[in-house]
Amino acid sequence: MEIKVLGPGCPRCQRTEQAVKDAVAEAGVDATVEKVADVMEIAKYGVFGTPAVVVEGEIKSVGKIPLVEEVKKWLQK
Amino acid sequence: MKERTKLLLIVLTFQACYYVPWDHATIRQSGLEAFMMLQEYAREHVLTCLVPAFFIAGAIAVFVSQAAVLKYFGATTKKILSYSVASVSGTILAVCSCTVLPLFAGIYTRGAGIGPATAFLYSGPAINVLAIVLTARILGWQLGLARAVCAVFFAVITGLLMAIIFRKDDASRTAGEMYLPDEEKKGRSLLQDALYMLTMVLILIFASFAGPPVGSTGLWPVIFAAKWYLTIALLIVLAVMLNSWFTKDEQVAWVQSTWSFMKQIFPLLAAGVLAAGFMLGRPGYPALIPDHYIQGLVGGNSLGANFFASVAGALMYFATLTEVPILQGLIGAGMGKGPALSLLLAGPALSIPNMLVIGGVMGVKKTATFCVIIVTLSTTAGMSYGWIAG
Q1: Are the C-beta atoms of residues B339 and B305 closer than 8 Å to each other?
Q2: d(CA B198, CA B90)
Q3: Residue B359 burial by CB count (10 A; 0-12/13-18/19+): exposed, middle or buried?
Q4: CATH number of residue A45's parent domain
Q5: What does the domain layout of chain B look like in residue ranges?
Q6: Helix (H) or strand (E) segment spanning residue A6
Q7: Which of B59, B49, B206 lies closest to B131, judged by CA?
Q8: pLDDT tens-digit map of B155-188
Q9: B111 touches chain A (CB under 8 A)
Q10: CA A26 to chain centre
Q11: pLDDT greater than 90 at residue B235
């Protein structure tokens, strides 16, 4: 499974990345977590606000720090 | 930070420790000025002005729905709406650096296009609530007001000019889906939110209410005498609102967001104040850079002085809010009012690192045009302001 965290590297983005990593570890899923910091890369996804989380190419959350429980639900599908 | 950068920093610090003649009279005086200025900020501005302003910024970041504003940046929105919203939305969107650049890139590539994108990019850093409050407080309300008003107008003018100059490119942008931040459910009405913000703004105003000139009559001395009673009454009102309108989670989120702003901005501001104090000293006290250099470069209100201030501001990087103490030092050392406004208008919106990022998004030609427009407008505004304010 491929997960991307979009964000230019502000504290909120780092907390999002941490939440996603925690969720992956807790759920025991085989997934790669990639941080996308390049502004143009982020814009290509069409997100208007960071941090954003992309799971398997699908945008799951924009502009907020997701809860670990929330991320786990995205991982199950 | 890369390891090589760290090494470089340590070597530079070491060399400064080693070679700077710290016991030289001028250096001693400059060092003293740096800490005197820091103390002035700590005594005069932190508790009554900055702390309330941080709580307001925190509340804006948490409780104002970004989605509600962002929908006006879509590709299908009427242009006039996009421009108007872009020019003022910095007040609520730009408090966090997380938002500005990705949002700019998003508006530019998928949304309303280059005009509103550049309007937003320009107005954002200049009219956020912290910047305006601190400018008005330390540099005087006239300059604070001039800064806010000019920033809004310039944002629209810059955006329109960019859209006209590059209208061909604008048509060839890729269309695609836009993802806005999720709208959160709230248990309050808009009126309740507005009252809550208003209470905090009033607390800020009364807590930092300046004393009237000696011998003046009327409302001013009366308010000044009662300012602490008013502040306390408002604090009680705020506590009641928080208790009855907000859930526990929302209160925690508010305090957390305020705390993260403080963590982020206070160290930078303190460093900026120390640097400004060291280089320029408090008004009326000499420090490292002699006053006549400043007066020669940016004193008075000539075209050269205003232009120099604009260009210097455009190239220099100011960490959030540090433009204020630096300008305070410059004005104290003899900078004219016009050039001061020029620097305030060109400064925070542009810097060399910032230009590199913008250049990566919209290319060198457009970035250069954007910078030229801003420097020209800032110079003009500075001259007009200097002429009016004398």
Answers
A1: yes
A2: 18
A3: middle
A4: 3.40.30.10
A5: 24-171+246-389
A6: strand A2-6
A7: B49
A8: 899 999 998 888 877 666 656 667 777 666 667 7
A9: yes
A10: 15
A11: yes
ipTM over 0.95 threshold: no
Q: For B351-367, how does the pLDDT look when each residue is reduced to its tens digit (9 = 90+)?
A: 887 888 888 888 899 99
Measured between CA atoms, the residue of chain A closest to residue B177 is A46
Whether the pLDDT of residue A77 is over 80: the answer is no
B65 inside 8 A of chain A by CB: no
Q: What pLDDT does residue B236 have?
A: 93
Q: Which range of residues forms the domain containing residue A25?
A: 2-76
Please, is B309 exposed, middle or buried when counting C-beta atoms within 10 Å of its C-beta (0-12, 13-18, 19+)? buried
Pairwise CB contact (< 8 Å): B180 & A62: yes
Q: 3-class DSSP state for residue B323?
A: helix
**Token digits for B62?**
């948490």
In contact, A45 and B363? CB cutoff 8 Å: no
Are A11 and A57 in contact, with CB atoms under 8 Å apart? no
Residues from chain A contacting residue B101 (CB–CB below 8 Å): 8, 39
The domain total for chain A is 1
Q: How far apart (Å, rounded) are the C-alpha atoms in residues B389 and B100?
A: 33
- Residue B65's contacts (CB-CB under 8 Å, 6 or more residues apart) are B183, B184, B186
B297: nearest Cα among B276, B313, B278, B321: B313
CA distance B119 to B85: 9
Asked whether residue A62 carries a pLDDT value surpassing 70, the answer given is yes
Q: How many residues does chain B have?
A: 390
Chain A contact probe: residue of B66, B95, B103 with most A CBs at under 10 A? B103
Does residue B256 register a pLDDT over 90? no
Query: Which of B64, B65, B69, B98 has the highest number of chain A CBs within 10 A, making it the mutation to test binding with A?
Result: B98
Interface list for chain A against chain B, based on CB atoms closer than 8 Å: 6-8, 10-13, 39-40, 42-52, 59, 61-64
CB contact at 8 A, A19 and A71: yes
User: Any chain A CB within 8 A of the CB of B73?
Assistant: yes
Pull the structure tokens for residue B389. 């304010």
CA distance A7 to chain B (A): 7
Per-residue pLDDT tens digits for B316-359: 877 778 888 999 999 888 888 899 999 989 988 788 878 888 88
Q: Which chain A residues touch B109 with a CB distance below 8 Å?
A: 40, 43-44
Residue B216's pLDDT band, with cuts at 50, 70 and 90, is confident
Q: How far apart are CA B220 and CA B227, in angstroms?
A: 10
